[in-house]
Amino acid sequence: MPRSVNAVASRARRKKILKETRGYFGSRKNVWTVAKNTWEKGQQYAYRDRRNNRRNFRNLWIIRINAGVREYGMSYSEFMGKIHEKNININRKVLADLAMNNPEAFKAIVESVK
């Protein structure tokens, strides 16, 4: 009995990866083994950088909140400590947005925790 290899599924798998690697430089786009390795490495970078992106945004929000509260004579750590004491549950993303785009509302929050 002949060996069954299911060439249709194998080719479909390869085509899927080669479609993902279109636009890559040199043999990274059309040589199966090189393209597969390149694609896998790209997936690792994407996974890692989704986490780094969250880290970077949190850092940016902290910087913006700190700049906003410095105008009212407080530091970031003082402000966050007092905001937790008063049980005001606003996350850093929203606080940073208020500090930048709506200073009156941010001032009201700062005054309420002082």
Provide a descriptive summary of the structure in words.
- With 114 residues, the chain is mainly alpha-helical.
- It has a single domain, classed as c-terminal domain of poly(a) binding protein (Orthogonal Bundle), CATH 1.10.1900.
- 74% of the residues lie in helices and 0% in strands.
- It is built from five helices and no strands.
- The protein has helices spanning 7-20, 32-70, 76-85, 92-101, 103-113.
- Helix 1 (7-20) packs across helix 2 (32-70), helix 2 (32-70) packs across helix 4 and helix 4 crosses helix 5.
- The longest helix is centred in the middle third of the chain and has 39 residues, at 32-70.
- It is rod-shaped and about 85 Å long.
- The model has no long low-confidence stretch (mean pLDDT 94).
Overview in brief:
This protein has 5 helices and no strands. It has 114 residues and is mainly α.
Write out key terms for the chains shown.
74% helix; c-terminal domain of poly(a) binding protein
CATH class: Mainly Alpha
Strand content: under 5%
- H/E order of the elements? HHHHH
Helix content: over 70%
The major beta sheet can be summarized as: none
What is the name of the CATH topology? c-terminal domain of poly(a) binding protein
Which class best fits the helix and strand makeup? mainly alpha
The tally of beta strands, per DSSP, is 0
| CATH homologous superfamily caption | Ribosomal protein L20, C-terminal domain
Q: What would the average pLDDT be, to the nearest integer?
A: 94
Distance between the termini: 84 Å
Count of the separate structural domains: 1
Q: If classified by CATH, what would the architecture be? A: Orthogonal Bundle
